[in-house]
């Protein structure tokens, strides 16, 4: 249950957070230029309503569509949400956007799956464009007649509930749920799924909303840190607290105080009571923010405060910090508790679980529920394609229910369960697919982490040692769908050169054969500087960056053999495959290559043969 909530929250967060700047822009415009703002201006005020009614829902829906259906899902999501918006322009359709975007992306994805292998040659662009338009149009109509009104009704019910809590002065009780949820990393679902849509609607009507204040007040955490700073008996913990105060209060990084609560869980009472008192104060004084305070620092908190409420907002922060400090101090004084290091390790584990990240064999949870594995590299062209093919062949007999495919690291789909990336791309993978478990590796062909993953997915257990037994691989005898390698693209018995010279030679051969423009060669060098294209087992597959795909004229692969090897870092590559691909036309050859590499004797022959025709036969 906890993991499901975390994943749902991360999914919502992945839709909202990339667009938080638009919400902040709306907040600043409202704070400054509405009739009750700091410097009222009728002209600038005219931008506030369209931004809230149209821009923000469209941005969120398009982001949600891209997460599921890629770029075409993004377009369909933007079209679809228009119907929901126009069903009731008096209500901000953030909740509808969070439904319409992913729904549109899902429909585009399913359409693409249905058309896979059935797309008439030469009609790809026509069908792709028309399908997005038709899917978007149908969903926009559905949004207008059904989803928009349904979400309006839900938002009205939630708003009525909030009004009831405010009128009866019981809204402060939500802090009983909010503060523990923050420490357990469950707050994303609560904040982005409920608080933000209600707050945005209230801000549109009243110019401000107390809902923006329920989770972002820096006061409760500040009180806890001050208690540790003055009264903690452990010197290491006490000395660390002042720095944590600065990071929390000015930087808005609330996670900094979570370990101090995990050291002694009873301390959670302090921020609960502190936040409760602050919310009560804000309720009594009719206080609110005009936009989200992100991050939750005192600076951001005050910057989105209405001019008339600035002092009241600051008093609320002081109240929260004061009560939290008073409650936490005696608990900190009396408690022995665990060390800060232990608590930080526990928090790191909790946060890692919330993000679905793992780099350690044995930490894949519920392996039987894994259905989709994505191998991702920078361009999604070469290394990830080979890695996916090799792992798919390895696991298909044991787990036919698992789909293994590849993509660019920036377009990992939202339904990905496990993402496999090279270490240098881990940060981009987390950003692209926060819901997925992350496996970082050194190379895609031979890495102990892949052996560990295989064992866990097939047995459910962590391996005691790297797995050595691969599933038998059958080399397909079907021909490659499209000839992407020719005899003129094969160079055998090359003299030893540097890595840069080998990549340059491969690129120039691609240019000579008419596969790419000359600028693609530099993109290959740039790609190598970003992350190594060495795959392992003596194989390297240099190719261009994602941005260079527009310079590819047609799909082609060249093969350069260096019997004495080319240094790729600490490894030597005897086989260098230069790749230029349009769509998936090159994947058949890469799949064929992966199966060939399973035969050690054949691999060694490829490294030393002087027979071009034999090489061409093996790769065709």
UniProtKB/TrEMBL annotation:
Its EC number is 2.7.1.197. The keyword DNA repair does not apply. It is an enzyme of class 2 (transferase). The phosphoenolpyruvate-dependent sugar phosphotransferase system (sugar PTS), a major carbohydrate active transport system, catalyzes the phosphorylation of incoming sugar substrates concomitantly with their translocation across the cell membrane. The enzyme II CmtAB PTS system is involved in D-mannitol transport. The gene is mtlA. It catalyses: D-mannitol(out) + N(pros)-phospho-L-histidyl-[protein] = D-mannitol 1-phosphate(in) + L-histidyl-[protein]. This is Mannitol-specific phosphotransferase enzyme IIA component. It comes from Sellimonas catena. SUPFAM superfamilies: Phoshotransferase/anion transport protein (SSF55804), PTS system IIB component-like (SSF52794). Keywords: Cell inner membrane, Cell membrane, Kinase, Membrane, Phosphoprotein, Phosphotransferase system, Sugar transport, Transferase, Transmembrane, Transmembrane helix, Transport.
């Amino acid at each position: 249950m906890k993991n499901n909530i975390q994943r749902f929250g991360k999914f919502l967060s992945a839709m909202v957070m990339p667009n938080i700047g638009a919400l902040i822009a709306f907040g600043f415009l409202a704070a400054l230029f509405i009739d009750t703002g700091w410097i009222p201006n009728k002209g600038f005020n005219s931008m506030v309503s369209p931004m809230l009614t149209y821009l923000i829902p469209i941005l969120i829906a398009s982001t949600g569509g891209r997460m599921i259906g890629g770029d075409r899902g993004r377009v369909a999501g933007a079209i679809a949400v228009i119907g929901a918006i126009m069903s009731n322009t008096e209500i901000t359709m953030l909740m509808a956007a969070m439904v319409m975007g992913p729904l549109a992306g899902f429909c585009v994805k399913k359409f693409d799956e249905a058309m896979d292998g059935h797309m008439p040659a030469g009609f790809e662009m026509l069908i792709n464009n028309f399908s997005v338009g038709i899917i978007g149009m149908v969903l926009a109509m559905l949004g207008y007649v059904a989803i928009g009104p349904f979400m309006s009704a839900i938002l009205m019910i939630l708003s009525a509930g909030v009004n009831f809590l405010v009128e009866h002065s019981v809204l402060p009780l939500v802090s009983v749920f909010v503060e523990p949820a923050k420490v357990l990393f469950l707050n994303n679902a609560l904040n982005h799924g409920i608080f933000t849509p209600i707050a945005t609607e209230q801000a549109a009507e009243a110019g401000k909303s107390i809902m923006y204040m329920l989770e972002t007040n820096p006061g409760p955490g500040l009180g806890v840190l001050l208690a540790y700073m003055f009264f903690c008996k452990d010197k290491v913990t006490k000395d660390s607290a002042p720095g944590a105060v600065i990071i929390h209060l000015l930087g808005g990084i609330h996670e900094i105080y979570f370990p101090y609560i995990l050291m002694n869980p009873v301390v959670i009472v302090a921020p609960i009571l502190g936040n409760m008192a602050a919310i009560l104060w804000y309720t009594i004084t009719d206080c609110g923010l005009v936009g989200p305070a992100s991050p939750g620092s005192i600076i951001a908190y005050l910057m989105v405060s209405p001019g008339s409420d600035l002092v009241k907002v600051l008093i609320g922060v002081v109240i929260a910090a004061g009560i939290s400090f008073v409650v936490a101090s005696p608990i900190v004084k009396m408690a022995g508790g665990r060390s800060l290091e232990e608590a930080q390790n526990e928090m790191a584990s909790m946060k890692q679980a919330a993000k679905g990240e793992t780099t350690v064999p044995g930490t894949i949870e519920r392996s039987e529920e894994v259905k989709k594995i994505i191998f991702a590299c920078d361009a999604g062209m070469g290394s990830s394609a080979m890695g996916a093919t090799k792992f798919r062949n390895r696991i298909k007999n044991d787990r036919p229910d698992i789909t293994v495919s590849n993509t660019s690291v920036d377009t990992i789909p939202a339904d990905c369960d496990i993402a496999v990336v090279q270490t240098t791309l881990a940060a981009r993978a987390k950003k692209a697919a926060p819901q997925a478990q992350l496996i970082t590796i050194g190379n895609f062909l031979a890495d102990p982490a892949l052996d560990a993953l295989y064992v866990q997915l097939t047995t459910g257990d962590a391996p005691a040692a790297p797995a050595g037994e691969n599933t038998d691989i059958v080399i397909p005898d079907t021909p490659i769908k499209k000839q992407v390698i020719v005899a003129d693209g094969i160079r055998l018995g090359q003299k030893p050169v540097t890595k840069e010279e080998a990549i340059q030679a491969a690129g120039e051969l691609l240019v000579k054969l008419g596969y790419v423009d000359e600028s693609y060669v530099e993109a290959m060098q740039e790609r190598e500087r970003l992350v190594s294209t060495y795959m392992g087992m003596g194989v390297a597959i240099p190719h261009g960056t994602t941005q260079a795909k527009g310079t590819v004229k047609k799909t082609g692969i060249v093969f350069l053999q260096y019997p004495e090897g080319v240094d790729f870092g600490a490894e030597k590559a005897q086989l260098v495959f230069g790749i230029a691909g349009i769509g998936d036309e090159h994947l058949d050859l890469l799949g064929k290559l992966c199966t060939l590499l399973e035969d050690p004797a054949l691999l060694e022959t490829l490294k030393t043969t002087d027979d071009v025709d034999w090489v061409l036969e093996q790769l065709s």
